[in-house]
User: Fold this.
Amino acid sequence: SYELTQPPSVSVSPGQTASITCSGDKLGDKYACWYQQKSGQSPVLVIYQDIKRPSGIPERFSGSNSGNTATLTISGTQAMDEADYYCQAWDSSTVVFGGGTKLTVL
Amino acid sequence: QVQLQESGPGLVKPSETLSLICTVSGGSVSSGSYYWNWIRQPPGKGLEWIGYIYYSGSTNYNPSLKSRVSISVDTSKNQFSLKLRSVTAADTAVYYCVRNLLDCSGGSCYPRKFDYWGQGTLVTVSS
Assistant:
């Protein structure tokens, strides 16, 4: 079965750039999405189709996807961005999520 | 504004069937533009996709759960439902109902994004 691998945790200082990776076999041939989940809340879509931002998502969130790796980049990270982030892709008509990355802003 | 709301028992006994309903407002489960999904999250763990249903009634399930899962739709009530049979403690989780928007611009339809999520409901499996 298809797997997506994320680092369990990433730390960043306020105002700096955070990068969260998601690895999977030929992931660049698929579309990747990213979801933000704050403690006790439902996930929120922050990036879809690799690079697109839904309305209401700040411009500091951006995405890329090439080869075997998709990356979520948060520029000028703010304290409010501290959350769990999940990548997601479709494989053979089934949904696959990465294991999630806890982003700590300190 | 689209809203999804899960409902159902918060406690289920081992070996019994977990049943949940998702009521959709601000949108229609009869639309051909969406897949209607169930996704779960065990306490302290990551997201796991359970499956989806299309307005036509066609379904697709996570292979790891396929033998125990069924998802159905009731267009008259604008609801879709989840049944998970023979539950164990490992099925304890927050269960979300979620809409997935399809891109049908090219003639065929492809899933693009989980754009609306319910608030989630915790189901505990315990005797």
Summary: Residues 73 and 80 of chain A are 15 Å apart (CA to CA). The first strand of chain A starts at residue 9 and ends at 12.
